[in-house]
């Protein structure tokens, strides 16, 4: 089983949105027995909380389930348990590297999945309020990640 972990700061906006969209796409592609998806945050402020209301509203609008998703904090054990660790911005990337001493081959910057896009980090809608923009990025990036996984691991 291939495992994917999306990482953002608080695990209530970007990474749970990515987790929900990726789960939805994995299911639609019939890959549930091949790909496992989770998310985590580098901070501990929201542990146990559901996704942010803006994230839930955007996922509801697109009929993407977020059932069972609760915020948790990234741990060094995650590095050993996941094949792909996808960080939403440079701060998350640096925090994961610092915590794990991680070799970069497991780490992906989310926007590297979308090289044609001008943004190099996923904006945090907790601060920007732009959940639509983040949804569109997650939709395209998760599609690109499935193609990457298929070419590299399946």
Automatic annotation (TrEMBL):
Catalytic activity line of the entry: O-phospho-L-tyrosyl-[protein] + H2O = L-tyrosyl-[protein] + phosphate
Class in the EC hierarchy, top level: hydrolase
Alphabetical list of Pfam families matching this protein: LMWPc
E.C. no: 3.1.3.48
Keyword annotations of the record: Hydrolase, Protein phosphatase
Taxonomy, superkingdom: Bacteria
GO MF assignments: protein tyrosine phosphatase activity
Domain Phosphotyrosine protein phosphatase I as annotated: residue spans: 2-148
SMART domains recorded: LMWPc (SM00226)
Active site residues per record: 8, 14, 124
PANTHER family according to UniProt: LOW MOLECULAR WEIGHT PHOSPHOTYROSINE PROTEIN PHOSPHATASE, LOW MOLECULAR WEIGHT PROTEIN TYROSINE PHOSPHATASE
Family of this protein: Belongs to the low molecular weight phosphotyrosine protein phosphatase family.
Record's protein name: protein-tyrosine-phosphatase
Organism: Paenibacillus dendrobii
């Amino acid at each position: 089983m291939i495992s994917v972990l999306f990482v953002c700061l608080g695990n209530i906006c970007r990474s749970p949105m990515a987790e929900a969209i990726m789960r939805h796409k994995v299911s639609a592609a019939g890959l549930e027995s091949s790909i496992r998806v989770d998310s985590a945050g580098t901070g501990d402020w929201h542990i146990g909380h559901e996704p942010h209301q803006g994230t839930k509203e955007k996922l509801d609008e697109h009929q993407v389930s977020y059932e069972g998703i609760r915020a948790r904090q990234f741990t060094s054990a995650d590095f050993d348990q996941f094949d792909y660790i996808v960080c939403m911005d440079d701060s998350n990337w640096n925090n994961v590297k610092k915590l794990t001493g991680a070799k970069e081959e497991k780490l992906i910057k989310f926007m590297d999945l979308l090289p044609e896009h001008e943004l190099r980090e996923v904006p945090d809608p907790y601060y920007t309020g732009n959940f639509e923009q983040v949804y569109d990025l997650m939709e395209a990036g998760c599609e690109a990640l499935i193609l990457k996984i298929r070419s590299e691991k399946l």
